[in-house]
Design brief:
116 residues, alpha+beta, six-stranded mixed beta sheet, 6 strands
């Protein structure tokens, strides 16, 4: 698969993860998050897959920009981007590691860092 196609797929997955439709849908979250998923939140909290699926995290109006992809291996990608949380008027730098399992990308790691 061409790198631009992978970038498009991962951009769409990251964008969907910012939406209420996905964040409140435990079935979808269970599919997109790998079994060993973990996250370092911008609050300093460490989240597991179980935590994220059960939390019903607060949803905010967020926009994604400056999306970039950095291949780590054939089926492992690091993505980086910025998020503007319009609800809290806060900017964060984001990074995620995605792994391809069979024919589906799954999120393995995510980190958010508050930015200026």
């Amino acid at each position: 698969m061409e790198i631009q196609e992978i970038k498009k797929q991962l951009f769409n997955l990251e964008k969907e993860l910012l939406t209420p439709q996905v964040r409140k849908n435990s079935v979808m979250l269970k599919e997109v998050l790998s079994a060993d998923f973990f996250e370092f939140g911008s609050s300093g909290t460490i989240w597991s897959k179980k935590d994220v699926v059960e939390a019903g995290l607060s949803l905010r109006e967020m926009t994604l920009s400056e999306f970039a992809i950095h291949p780590l291996a054939e089926d492992v990608m690091l993505v980086t981007y910025r998020v503007h949380d319009r609800t809290r008027n806060q900017h964060t730098l984001r990074s995620s590691i995605w792994r391809k399992k069979e024919h589906q990308w799954q999120l393995f790691f995510h980190q958010g860092t508050i930015a200026t």
